[in-house]
Hints:
single chain, 332 residues, mainly beta, 1 helix, 21 strands, 5% helix
Amino acid sequence: MKWLALVLLCVSSLFVAPRADATTTCSITGITGLSFGAVDPTGGVVNVSATLNYRCVYSGPLAELFGSFITACASFGTDDLGNLSPRTLLNPSGDRMQYQVYQDTVSTVWGTLGNATYGPRTFIMNIGILSNGAQVTGSLPVYGRVSAPQSTLSPGNYTGTLTSSLTYSHNDALLSLGLPPATCTSGGTGGPFTVAGPTMTVTASVAPKCTFGAATDLLFGNVPGLLTTATDQTSLLRITCTNRAAYQLGLDNGANASGTQRRMAAGGAFVNYELYKDSQRTLRWGGTLNSDTLSRSGTGTEETVTVYGRVPAQSAVAAGTYSDLITVTVTY
């Protein structure tokens, strides 16, 4: 009976003792790029996702009798400025687009091991009793978001990279009767180990864009019927264009023009008038690109542009309400 008790004690110890010659190795096998595509600086947030793939392999003599329990932490590093929140992408002009990488849909920032505020993604794996070289593979979703609005962004391609790493500890147990380590850095029979992973590429782009807000009416008011002196008034155009995006504003000749002469009409009578780009009313405002249009550069915020109008001295016309309709064209 004493001999039997000794055997039972030895078998019992094998259930909890680790195998000194067993090996569990884990790695990040690949990360798809995080591509935000076209981003509108004045629009809403942009959400995309990527995938991180991992693998752990258990090997050693008599591996078919053992299983491995693994606690792992996947980390993403800082941007090129050393920041975790917000991270940024850079374009050739030096503009920075703010974005973030999350462990879930957009509440927990995916950071790095050792950072008290923005930590890594922790997950657990188990390699059961199979054979020498048994492995487990899997994937983790990576959630990305570009915040909005970011009106100072200018057109161009934005890029950045994030390094990755995997830290893990493991417990190897006979007949796979065991538990995973408490954390990826403690509580295991092996580890912690840290291995560098692939670099994740992050990209986005901003295209030039203009949005026309409104135009106020150009009201000359009551003009003496003899039209012996010029009458001046102004109108306002409101427009929002991407920061540093070049654009041109053109005005057509109206609905009642005679050649290039703009005219207001009342029945069969006409009053000549003109529109200008400058307050001195020397630069006629037309619709021919790179010629008589108004060229500007966007600021990312709404701009107010003044149209200078004049009814010049001319031959007298019959009393009435004279009007015309001008079409504004934005080219960018």
